[in-house]
Amino acid sequence: MDRMAAGFDIPPRQGISRNYVFDEDLPTTHLNSHPETNSLVSSTCQKCSESLHLLVNETSLACYRIEEHIQKTIPHLKSIDKQISSVEGKMEGAGYDADYTTEYLENMDVIPELQNIQGWLKNALINAGKIKDLHDKKLPPG
Fold first, then answer.
1. How distant is the alpha carbon of residue 135 from its chain centre?
2. pLDDT tens-digit map of 99-128
3. Count of other CB atoms within 10 angstroms of residue 19
4. Looking at beta carbons, which pairs linking 23-31 to residues 24 or more positions away fall under 8 Å?
5. Angle at 55 between CA 53 and CA 57, to 5 degrees
6. pTM of the full structure
7. Are 49 and 16 in contact, with CB atoms under 8 Å apart?
């Protein structure tokens, strides 16, 4: 809808650009008589325009900071990931070793060689005790 047709006497807005200083529709005859004021107003408008431009583009600055942070942290995260993978592999190997050992120990009763060894160890301990007793009897007291 056209602003003039709606009953408003406001001229259409112009877009804000980086180089925006003055609106052409504003009267500037009183500024031409004071060059110092004109330069101050011009520089102030320029600074305001730049500030507005920065505020409008602040989201891109935030995205840049996020990207910068990501670029800094990715190498550290990759090294941590490698360490975790290494530890995970070692833990998996230890788990397999523990499972194999448990299975072997559960089946020890079935292995006849181990039962023979157990009997031989009992006999060896009994014989060692007998030898010690005989040796103690042969030694004179004191």
1. 72
2. 999 988 887 777 777 778 878 899 999 999
3. 9
4. none
5. 70
6. 0.36
7. yes
